[in-house]
Amino acid sequence: MTHNSAFKRNEAAGLDLGWVNQIKVNRNAADRRAASLANRRTVKKEYQAAWLVKAIQCIDLTTLGGDDTPGRVERLCMKALRPLRTDLMDALGVQGLTTGAVCVYHEMIAPALKVLNGRLPIAAVSTAFPAGLSSLETKLREIELSVAAGATEIDIVITRQHVLTGNWTALYDEMLAYRKACGDAHVKAILATGDLVTLENVAKASWVCMMAGSDFIKTSTGKEGVNATIPVSLVMVRAIREYYEQTGFQVGYKPAGGVSTAKSALQYLTVMKEELGNEWLEPHLFRIGASSLLTDIERQLEHYVTGNYSASHRHAQP
């Protein structure tokens, strides 16, 4: 994970159940704020182009299909290294543009490493993704194997029952064990927010995972019925802001699942800028988990450069 030299990784702050138990979320207020952010007029013309280039830099280009093959992953990685056509890059005056990382299953780390060879982070989903219902011993071993295979980021899934039953100590201990197993690899905690029922649960789970040392908190596996949403994102980024104010540690944020259009990417960038500031608009603190998003962004940038939209099938599919 690339970051500036002054960046400090989140360290386990210790579980504060008094703080966790007093967390409350005003659903109506969260929905109103989310609607105002989502419906705001978007930036236009060259400003929009610049924001879309920024979005590309923050994409975790993802393939998590049961039919993944080494060839598909190699193509994905080549697209991650050159996400825009050369003529568009030249017209935009952009050089060296890449996505933030690629995200794959454990078995696809080797073909990703073959192409990327250290030029981009490789994120591996782990801990019995997406349900997370294997033994803790199995999940910890999976993390260790992925790190040994060359993954520099690990996207873990929490055990949802710990949240649904309010067993915050169990969630904290689990997350602490995951962080330790990751070693130097950065860890993203997937909350599977669509399964957590309430925004209060989302807020509490966010805090517990950060207290246990998670480097990122992430909305979804992409496999739940409901994935990333603006209200959920608002709750999570405000938890990140408060955690930073209390501890001095910056935790990253990753919406994932259903972020497939340039317009939706701009909405999430707006949330980050408005709630956390420009510092969080960098790949070491913001990622978008996506597969088809890059195609739409490329189409929008082609329209900006040429005045015409091309059919999506004319763009290389990641």
Automatic annotation (TrEMBL):
Enzyme Commission (EC) number: 4.1.2.4
InterPro entries, per database record: Aldolase_TIM, DeoC, DeoC/FbaB/LacD_aldolase
* Biological pathway: Carbohydrate degradation; 2-deoxy-D-ribose 1-phosphate degradation; D-glyceraldehyde 3-phosphate and acetaldehyde from 2-deoxy-alpha-D-ribose 1-phosphate: step 2/2
UniProt keyword Cell inner membrane, yes or no: no
**Pfam families documented for this protein:** DeoC
Q: Which UniProt keywords apply?
A: Lyase, Schiff base
UniProt keyword Lyase, yes or no: yes
| Catalysed conversion reaction | 2-deoxy-D-ribose 5-phosphate = D-glyceraldehyde 3-phosphate + acetaldehyde
Transmembrane intervals: none
- The lineage's top-level taxon is Bacteria
A Gene Ontology annotation in the biological process aspect, one of them, is: deoxyribonucleotide catabolic process
A GO cellular component annotated for this chain's UniProt record is:
cytoplasm
Enzyme class name: lyase
Q: Which family does it belong to?
A: Belongs to the DeoC/FbaB aldolase family. DeoC type 2 subfamily.
Q: What is this protein called?
A: Deoxyribose-phosphate aldolase
Give the originating organism. Answer: Massilia polaris
